[in-house]
Structures are given as C-alpha cells and as structure tokens.
Amino acid sequence: MQFIITAYDFQDNEALNRRLSSRQAHLDGIEKMVMAGTFLSGGAILNDDGKMIGSSAHVEFKDRAGVDAWIAQDPYTTGKVWDKVIVNEGLLFPVNKLLKTAIT
Q1: Which of these, 43, 69, 70, lies nearest to 57 by C-alpha position?
Q2: Taking every pair of C-alpha atoms in the chain, what is the biggest distance, in angstroms?
Q3: Which of 18, 17, 29, 81 shows the shortest CA–CA distance to 54?
C-alpha cells in the first residue's frame, strides 16, 4: 500500500534546531528505506522564507501499521521535530517503473 505523509514541525523557538540536530539520523533512515524499497520520494516543506517547517513523504508499506511503526521510531518523531503528522493512503504515479523501462 502506498501512503502520503505530510508532517508539520513544532513551531516553538527551538524547533528548527531540533530538526537540524536530528536531520542526519533521519536521512540515514531514509537511505535505508530507499534501499528496502519503502521510501518512494519526499523532502522538506519550506515556508515563504525558505525555512524548513515540515516534511512530505511518499512511502510504500504492507499496511498502515508499518507506516505507523516507521513514524513512531523516526528521529523526527523521537526528537520532537514533527508536531502534526497526517497519513493518507495514496495511489502514486509509477515514476520508478517508467525510469527503469526507459533506461533498459
């Protein structure tokens, strides 16, 4: 199942510092997910000033419980970066499949 995650950061004065201090651990986990085939795309949500204020991710897991387990252990959750996380089931355009076909 594919899911679209939209996660908004806390808005207190230390929120950006927590994001930056958790960022490398978060990205290390994302790299592992890419290799496992569960992370499809995503990145930071920016405000009008270019400041990171949240995250968007497209992921694929067997079920919602898998998504919830990932979110619960992600450094942005445990590091108090993400405040509000919205999870929706989605049906994403198969970009990777088309790219593989185009390359071969």
Answers
A1: 43
A2: 49
A3: 81
According to CATH, the topology of domain 2-103 is: Alpha-Beta Plaits (3.30.70)
Q: Locate the domains of the chain by residue range.
A: 2-103
Which burial class, exposed, middle or buried, applies to 65 when counting CB atoms under 10 A from its CB (0-12, 13-18, 19+)? exposed
Q: Which residue has the tokens 């419980």?
A: 65
pTM: 0.88
**2-50 pLDDT, tens digit each:** 999 999 999 999 999 999 999 999 999 999 999 999 999 999 999 999 9
User: Residue 90 has which token pair?
Assistant: 């989605």
Q: Could you tell me if residue 50 is left (phi over 0), alpha (psi between -120 and 50 degrees) or otherwise beta?
A: left
CA distances to 61, 75, 103 from 58, rounded to whole Å, are 10, 17, 23
